[in-house]
Recover the amino acids of this structure.
């Protein structure tokens, strides 16, 4: 028998049992959908993290509190080896590092949580923010851009000027605007007056997008942090990246922070070398420079490649997890399909008898039912894939925290694995059908 | 055409072997029209399944169209069945999910022969049984007589030399019985060998020869046997 005939028979078989088929397929569809969406999330997260780590340039070195233990292979184990001690890094350490040869810049950062307040009486807005003390290099190192105003200068830093730059969420919050959920930020229209999507689209098309919503700005106004008043000089643009977003930050000069708040110890320090050529030497020198001020090694100096290594390990864990989930989903949907096919074979006993009476060989009956299962799984896989793809598209169009990535290999993997599932779980029902004795099958009521 | 020697068949029932056919001898020439009668449970369907190669002998020999069926592999038997035998059953045995057209097409699907004009062949047969206009219908929407006519068209589509009919009129009323018998007469006239199992004397009378299955063996027709039917 030609393979095509086998396929045609299988297709016919499926089509004439289409309702049951649809039901049976749900397992594969859901399984495949889950796998596709999960891998898109995993890869999306990894990509986003990569970009951020990539934000730590190849010529940059990160100094963090706590000691990173060395693994047995002599590498730094960033994932599990970090002893969590309170930071002992100080602004003096940063000053010392500045003196190291071939260091272009040092950006120390202090961080605490505090209440920020604006307005008086009824309209007072008070909210929690991450208060960061840093240098004029902060925006550059964090890849943050200004939406309005300006960043503070080196002079202001040295003068301990009471100036601050607000993250976008803090700015909006202090103005009493509802916190705009991340999802709808792309739409450009704040929640205040929700419009149906078609109106928003129309607005975008006709170019009359929300002119009246040009909000007032806090630049030039005074804002209270704790008991102290600060002048707002700039607002950061929304910086929607996973983990290290600046949206909920309030940034002030580090000298100001040391004087005005009780922050003493650095949460981290980004050191920039003159070039990648000298990075290894700078790495060693920075370490010794800080060590001079410390009795024990309670800090760590990490280069970009070490970060990437750690990230790689996170990624492999994600991949193993994904493989596990995929396998589970496939086995569950596979057994479901097999169940339905075995039921179908039983119900169609008479049909099998008839086909054999008309001259179908054992092999031909087997091929028909086998292809039915494979086709069923493949169809379910394709539908699940389509739904997963749609989900990724919708997510990416509406959510900006991080974007999902659906790589070609995941698509191929999904399709191949649904065929493999069909093959594995199709054998038993097919054999069951093929082995039937025709005279008994015809007697079957 | 058919040569059955000392054919034996038994079934297992609760660990015990129950003989159904105890040594059947049967010879049917090409182009003959034979009826087989017998009580319910006497083994008529069992015999027909053996002749149709749907089941295997537990003893004895079976030759069909000059070939030793009892020595054949499963695959060879399937091919022989497809090429040489057309079945008509009491309960029609059409595949419920396939249309009339596709039911008739089925034997061609499994045929090893290269049919050049399958579509035309199927339509021609549907024409002959007067059901060309219902080719798209599902079997469930046909009357009993119509179903049996479709089954006959299906049995004929591969131009088999032998038609095996197991109570083909058992589910039909007098009028439709006549139309089915008329069709079988025509097939017989065209040269096919026909073997019919029936309880109905009127049906058996259409055959050239009547046989009687009793106590696991075949007897030639006699008045005494007729009395017992
Ligand atoms: N697969 C089987 N397993 C066990 N017993 C069987 C099997 N097939 C048939 N039999 C038994 O063999 C005997 C003959 O059955 P068969 O169907 O051949 O009778 P029949 O003459 O066709 O009867 P009817 O006129 O009612 O159709 C019965 O007693 C039946 O129970
Ligand atoms: Mg019977």
């Amino acid at each position: 028998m030609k393979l095509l005939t086998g396929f045609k028979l299988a297709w016919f078989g499926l089509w004439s049992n289409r309702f049951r088929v649809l039901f049976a397929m749900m397992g594969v569809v859901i399984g495949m959908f889950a796998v596709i969406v999960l891998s898109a999330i995993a890869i999306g997260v990894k990509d986003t993290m990569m970009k951020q780590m990539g934000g730590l340039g190849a010529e940059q070195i990160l100094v963090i509190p706590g000691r990173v233990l060395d693994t047995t292979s002599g590498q730094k184990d960033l994932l599990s080896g970090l002893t969590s001690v309170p930071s002992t890094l100080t602004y003096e350490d940063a000053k010392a590092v500045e003196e190291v040869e071939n260091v272009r810049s040092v950006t120390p950062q202090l961080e605490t949580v505090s209440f920020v307040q604006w307005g008086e009486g009824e309209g007072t807005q008070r909210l929690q923010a991450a208060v960061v003390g840093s240098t004029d290099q902060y925006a550059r190192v964090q890849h943050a851009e200004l939406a309005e105003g300006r960043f503070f200068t080196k002079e202001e830093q040295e003068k301990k000027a009471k100036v601050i730059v607000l993250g976008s969420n803090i700015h909006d919050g202090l103005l009493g605007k509802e916190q705009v959920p991340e999802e709808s930020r792309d739409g450009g229209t704040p929640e205040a007056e929700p419009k149906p999507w078609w109106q928003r689209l129309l607005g975008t098309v006709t170019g009359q997008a929300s002119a009246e919503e040009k909000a007032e700005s806090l630049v030039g106004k005074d804002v209270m942090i704790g008991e102290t008043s600060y002048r707002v000089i700039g607002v950061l643009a929304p910086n929607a990246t996973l983990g290290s977003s600046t949206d909920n930050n309030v940034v002030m000069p580090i000298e100001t922070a040391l004087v005005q708040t009780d922050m003493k110890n650095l949460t981290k320090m980004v050191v920039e070398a003159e070039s990648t050529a000298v990075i290894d030497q700078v790495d060693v020198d920075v370490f010794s420079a800080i060590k001079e001020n410390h009795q024990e090694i309670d800090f760590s100096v990490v280069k970009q490649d070490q970060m990437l290594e750690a990230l790689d390990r996170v990624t492999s864990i994600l991949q193993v997890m994904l493989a596990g989930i995929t396998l589970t989903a496939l086995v569950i949907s596979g057994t479901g399909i097999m169940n339905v096919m075995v039921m179908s074979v039983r119900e169609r006993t008479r049909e099998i008898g008839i086909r054999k009476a008309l001259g179908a060989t054992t092999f031909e009956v087997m091929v028909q039912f086998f292809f039915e299962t494979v086709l069923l799984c493949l169809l379910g896989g394709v539908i699940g894939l389509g739904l997963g793809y749609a989900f990724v598209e919708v997510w990416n169009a509406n959510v900006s925290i991080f974007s999902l990535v659906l790589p070609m290999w995941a698509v191929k993997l999904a399709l191949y694995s649904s065929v493999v599932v069909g093959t594995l779980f199709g054998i038993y029902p097919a054999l069951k059908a093929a082995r039937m004795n025709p005279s008994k099958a015809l007697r079957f009521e | 055409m058919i040569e059955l020697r000392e054919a034996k068949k038994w079934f297992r029932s609760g660990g015990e072997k129950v003989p159904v056919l105890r040594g059947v001898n049967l010879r049917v020439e090409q182009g003959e029209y034979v009826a087989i009668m017998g009580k319910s449970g006497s083994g008529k369907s069992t015999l027909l399944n053996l002749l149709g190669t749907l089941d295997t002998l537990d003893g004895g020999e079976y030759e069909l169209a000059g070939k030793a069926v009892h020595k054949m592999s499963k695959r060879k038997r399937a091919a022989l069945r497809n090429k040489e035998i057309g079945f008509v059953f009491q309960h029609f045995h059409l595949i419920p999910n396939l249309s009339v057209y596709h039911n008739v097409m089925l034997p061609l699907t499994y045929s090893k022969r290269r049919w050049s004009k399958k579509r035309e062949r199927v339509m021609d047969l549907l024409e002959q049984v007067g059901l060309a206009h219902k080719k798209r219908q599902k079997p469930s929407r046909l009357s009993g007589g119509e179903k049996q006519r479709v089954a006959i068209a299906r049995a004929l589509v591969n131009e088999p030399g032998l038609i095996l009919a197991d109570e083909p009129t058992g589910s039909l009323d007098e009028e439709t019985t006549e139309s089915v018998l008329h069709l079988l007469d025509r097939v017989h006239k065209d040269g096919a060998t026909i073997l019919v199992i029936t309880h109905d004397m009127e049906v058996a009378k259409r055959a050239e020869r009547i046989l009687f299955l009793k106590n696991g063996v075949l007897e030639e027709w006699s008045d005494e046997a007729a009395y017992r039917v």
Remarks:
- The interface with chain A takes residues 46, 49, 52, 54-55, 74-75, 78-79, 81-83, 87, 89, 93-98, 102, 106-107, 109-111, 154, 158 of chain B (CB under 8 Å).
- Residues 55 and 81 of chain B are 11 Å apart (CA to CA).
